[in-house]
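Quick one: examine this chain and its backbone structure tokens and tell me how the chain folds. Here goes:
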Amino acid sequence: MLYCFYYSARRKKFRDQKEAIKQLIDPYISQSVLMSLETEETNLRLPGFDELQQKCKEAYNRKVIIDELVLARKNLAGQAAEIIEQLYTSLQLQLDSEHKLHSYKWFKKAKGIQELSFMSQRRYWKDIYKLTNHSNEYVRMEAQSGIVRLVGFIGLRFLNSATYQISEWQQVNLLYLLESLPITEFQGIERWLHSNNKSVVIFALKLIASFRRYEQHHLVVKCLQNPEPEIRQQAIKTLSNIYREDTASHIIERYSFETWHNQLESLKSLGKIGEEEIAPFLAGVTNDPDPQIRMEAARALLLCTAAGRQVLQEKAISDQSWNTILEQLENEMRA
């Protein structure tokens, strides 16, 4: 009973302390950002700065202030973000984050990486880069994201030596980070497409698609013969983003050798490419016994040629179900 009382009182103390610090730091952040935007002044010694420095003598207060600054930095950009970063370094809070970075505890290490990368502490990029292939998944993911935040596309060189699989969620996250950066040339795609790490190959294909690297078309075509179905599927998707005159023919050539899922993906890509020359192939696939394959072939056919509707209407003469399919597809296209 006594222990419960002590624990409850301790929790209340920290909760009250946290709230007091937030009431001090939040208005200061707002005041600093607004002044910088209005006057382009970056002087952080506003009323309250000395009190913040005084509060920073206590470890728990520093923790709360770091959390608030990181939260603010995530929601800001440009000059406002720079003000937050300057406040972070003016209070010497990067030293706390550095200590976490070198901690033996994975959750502290991951948090340190996140804090330093969000606060643009580029001096730590080498330390963070070394953790991009860490055995702990969370540390590894934070390091991979962190190095991209700090140095941009150059940070992708961690793919050269990645031995662990990069999760689909992490791939989405990395692409999101990269798309927010100024577009620049980056090297390494050829190497990544030949990686023994399946997820690295898939991510490289996604990079080619996202940044329209047309010059890699021939390498993507080669991936259509990769033994891994997931890699072939991503290659099919990527080709629909960088297609040229012969792209459809490469997809059609491999169609009969593909898995069911990849055949569906092939038909979607052919519909996106939308060349009238592939209409005869698609018309033939509408006779497939699988209903989903037939539906996807019909959808692609309508996208490829104005005569697609007539082909499907003729099929409806002998099979009334095509009337329903045609109506559904036309409603989709009107939506």
Summary: The mean pLDDT is 89.
